[in-house]
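Title: Prediction job returns without error message
Component: structure pipeline
Severity: low
Priority: P3
Assignee: unassigned

Description:
Job completed but the reporter wants confirmation the result is attached to the right record. Sequence as submitted:
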Amino acid sequence: MDKKELAQFLRHRREALRPRDVGLVEGPRRRTQGLRREEVAQLAGMSTDYYARLEQQRAPQPSVQIAAALARALRLTLDERDHLFVLIGHNAPARFHRSEHVSPTLLRVLDRLDDSPALVQTDLLDTLAMNPLAVALLGDQTRPHSQLRSSGGTPITGLASSGYYRWFMDPAERLVYPEEVHEHHGRAHAARLRAALTSGSDTPRAARILAELQEHSPEFVRYWELQEVAQSYDDCKTILHPELGRIDVDAQLLFTENRAQTLVVLTTRPGTESHSKLELLSVIGHQQLTP
């Protein structure tokens, strides 16, 4: 770990960003050049004290997870992310396999969306980032449901971070959709997994997901035997919110060049009950409507 170079790199990248670049409000009396340390810490999900010690060359070596969070918070390119990992003393993640590093382009768009639920997903349906309204509507999909968590309460990674895997292995994953569309979603997931198996960003991982589902989910096997193949995303769906009930949304998609990651923006049609519910949700966020 090169503490001196790491500190200089972090400080330079932090000072090169403005609050609006990461979806934050820039106050009129702001004196700090670029982002404040506490803002980077907030974006990375770590304590301000720990981040400050990194810039002061006093912190112990960050974990791989913290390194990835820093790269995401500072909106680093892949080259910059790899450089950060080397400074910290880790091997850089493989570029063409599944990565926790969100495309900076998609992340910049996500940061500017505050009136529509939006999330970034991989072609294996790993949710990498969500805006607050998406979390309020769908729950935090970056943290799989409790049945697939480790005993210590930390969200399990690996296969369980894939929405394809969770749909067939975790019953709680289906609570957000009406029961009458479960078969449609199941078939769509099987068809998209088949496409990812041959032309996706991480075909070995897709093969591992396939093997697990074939062994443990008879429902998946039924859909898999239909030999359906698709790369398309459901452009219209109904979400079941625990307090607001059914909300009909349309999905608009923005892909990275290699289609390994997708920004999904969910919208409602103006003048509909669903639109009113989404407007209400944007105000109340995670607050409970009922005791």
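Comment from assignee: result matches the submitted record. The chain is about 40% helix and 10% strand.
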